[in-house]
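User: I'm preparing a small set of examples for a lab meeting where we compare how different chains pack in three dimensions. I only have the primary sequence for this one, and I'd like the structure in token form so I can line it up with the others. Please keep the answer compact; I'll paste it straight into my notes.
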Amino acid sequence: MSRGFLESTTMAFARAITRAMLSERTARQRGLLQSLDPRVRVVGLFSLVLAVTLCRRIDAVAGLFALAVVLALLSQVGLAILAKRVWWVVLAFTGIIALPAIFITPGDVVTRLGTVFITAQGLRAAGLLVLRVETAVTFTALLVFCTPWSHVLKALRALRLPREAIAMLAMTYRYVFLLVETAAQMFESRRSRTVGVLAPAERRRMAARTAGVLLSKTIETSSEVYLAMQSRGFAGDIQVLCDFRMTMWDYAGLLLFLAVGSFAVWAGR
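Assistant: Understood. Below is the structure token output for the 269-residue chain.
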């Protein structure tokens, strides 16, 4: 385990925490989605995600993607952030899955690469898959960027999601940050005590010891947190300082979300 590896790992953990803090900062800015009730954001954006999955026409999905971009701009979410953290990642992952469809889908031949044919139907199927996933993930990312996580959980609980599911989501979210912070501290401590380049066998032993200590700390901390939550009367409901109140603007926004989603499904049949 060389110094370069330790430094890069520590920086990766630090960047993960920084990105989460930036998301919380974006959620507290003044924007279109931030002005709506969290329950409206959850129902509205999830209805658009459902509409994306039901659309069969690529032009209808493209229209929903354009709507997602407009919502991002009106909600103070930078397109550079979406491109770096959402679009490029989804394109790389979905593109690998959609690539074989270009060659194996029968239809009108567009071009030929040796003994392999590229069909127009294959290009359309691959493009529809990639665009559909990009659009759905963009709507989901907008919900996360524009809504504090505690508000998302409370909105889901208000929509009658089971307490057990809410508790699992809340604990998972918090434990991810705890795990990242603990791992970053361990790597930083190890980096400050490492001189020179270690042998490959020693690197493997050090990595195994670090993973074991991290697992032990995680189990111990989970028990302590569970007892602390019980002593404070936690029963599965998420409590936040602000109360959710629906206004006329919220009802209008919810109806608009549902209308756009329904129209997209109808147009994309």
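A couple of notes for your slides: The CA atoms of residues 85 and 141 lie 9 Å apart. The chain has two domains: 1-28+162-238, 30-147+244-269.

User: Perfect, thanks.
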